[in-house]
Each structure stands twice: as C-alpha cells, then as structure tokens.
Design goal:
By secondary structure, this protein is of the alpha+beta class. The protein is built from 5 helices and 14 strands. Helix content is about 40%, strand content about 25%. A hairpin with an 8-residue loop joins β9 and β10. It starts with a helix and ends with a strand.
C-alpha cells in the first residue's frame, strides 16, 4: 500500500515540475514570435542627461568632431603600438650625470676666461705695466747720473780762455774765429757764426750761460755779451752803472775774471766791470 502510493505520487510531482519549467520557455517563445523586446520589458531602464545623446555633425562643430576623431585614432594607435608613445617627461638624469654637466660647464667657462684674459693683456697692455717699463727706460744709470751732476756743476761755473781756446755749456762748444779778411766772430762747434765782432778780441770768458768777449777797438776797448739760448739779434755790450757800454781808452793788456767782476787792465789802469 505504501509503495503504490509513493509510486503514484512521484509521477504527479514530476508532471507538476515539468509543467512549471515549461511555462517560462513558452513565454520566451511567445516573445520571440512576437518580435524584438520592448524597452519596457527590460529590468534596467535609465534616463540620459542633456548633452549625453548622439550629436549630429554640422559645419559649426565639424572641427571639434574631427579633433575628437583624431584623438581617438591616436589613442587606438598608441594602444596597439606602445613603443611609439612620446614620454611625458625627459630622460631621467642621474646625480652623476648632473655633476658631470656642471663640472664641464665650469671648465668651459674657465678656459674662455683664461683665453680672453690672455688676448686682452696681449692686445691692450695694462696701465701698471706701461709705467713700469717707462720707469726702467727713463731711469738713468749711476754713471749717467754722475755725468749729469758734473755737467750741471760745469754749466754753473766759469771759464776763461784766450782767442785760440774754447768754452762749453750744456755740451755745446764755443770759440772765436778769424776770417780771411781779418774780422772776428763767435762760432759754435759746427762753425756757424753766432755774432760778428767789430773789434779784435783778447779773450773768451764764460760765466754760467753768458759769454763775454773783451775786445780792442780803434778808439778804446769794450766787452761784448752773448747769452746762450736767449741772445737777441744784433750785438750787445756789457753796460756800466750809468747805462753806457763799459770800457775805456787804450788797448787791453790783461783780463781777469773774479766772481761777478771782470777786471780789465788797459793803458796802465784797471777797470772793474760788474757782471751782476
């Protein structure tokens, strides 16, 4: 009894289960037969906001659409070819590379500075070097200093010679010269006549830069004066206290230079001629 009831109950259960499984299939069949499903049949229904729908390409937005298309093509190409991607940042530089670059830049600057300094010093000598060179060139030696001192002492001194002697001042030599016609003149070392004398000289005297020539004339004697480097044209004479040319009667017998006095003896009498 029990086994028959159980056997009878199982087929009924299977039939019920088969019937329940056949119903969804029948609905799917009916849907397929009736055509594509409606949006209302879907369980996932959502709305779109403004600007999210499809956009129609017009003349106004053609360039924008082309730009989007170009970017999409570039993105797809980059995905297919990763090696062609342009890095967003430059190559990584290690600390050692940076140090080497800095050291190289410093060395280049140092070389340029040294070369520029050498060229500048060669083309334009510094002002400190020029005076040093001039000082070495213009500074006289010890022997030259001694000669200069001796020359200064000589120039400030006095000399007296006869008509055949010479005197000197500042390295220039002076003498008396008689021409073929018997006239006399004062000449330099080159033989150039400086002044022509009217009488016959008896001596040549130098006191500092002034040359004195006592001379005899037909009516007496006088003293000719010549200033080296400052003589005026013509002949000048030493004058006495009264402003007239110093002199006297008779021929000169002797001449003696005594400091600032020229002592002349003529016709048995002596006359002191003041030179200062």
């Amino acid at each position: 009894m029990g086994f028959s009831d159980e056997k009878n109950a199982r087929p009924a259960h299977r039939a019920s289960h088969a019937a329940s499984g056949a119903r969804p299939t029948a609905r799917r069949v009916r849907r397929q037969a009736s055509g594509p499903g409606l949006a209302s049949d879907s369980d996932r229904i959502s709305t779109i906001r403004a600007g999210q729908g499809a956009r129609v390409t017009t003349r106004q937005n053609a360039s924008e659409a082309a730009g989007r298309a170009r970017k999409s093509a570039e993105r797809r190409y980059a995905e297919r070819h990763p090696e062609a991607r342009v890095p967003q940042t430059g190559p990584r530089r290690s600390a050692l590379n940076m140090v080497l670059l800095v050291v190289a830049a410093v060395l280049v600057l140092a070389v340029v500075f040294v070369l520029g300094t050498l060229v500048t010093s060669w083309v334009f000598p510094t002002q400190q070097e020029e005076p040093a060179g001039q000082e070495q060139t213009l500074r006289p030696t010890e022997s030259e200093l001694q000669l200069q001192q001796e020359q200064q002492e000589h120039n400030s001194g006095q000399e007296q010679v006869g008509t055949d002697g010479t005197v000197s001042y500042a390295g220039e030599t002076y003498a008396l010269s008689q021409a073929a016609d018997g006239t006399w003149s004062l000449v330099n070392a080159a033989g150039d006549a400086l002044i022509a004398l009217e009488g016959a000289p008896v001596a040549l005297v130098r006191t500092a830069d002034t040359l004195l020539i006592p001379e005899n004339r037909d009516d007496g004697w006088d003293v000719v004066s010549y200033v080296i480097g400052g003589h005026l044209d013509g002949i000048t004479y030493v004058v006495g206290p009264d402003g007239n040319p110093a002199g006297g009667s008779g021929d000169i017998e002797s001449v003696e230079l005594d400091g600032t006095t020229l002592r002349v003896t003529a016709g048995g009498s002596t006359t002191d001629v003041a030179l200062a």
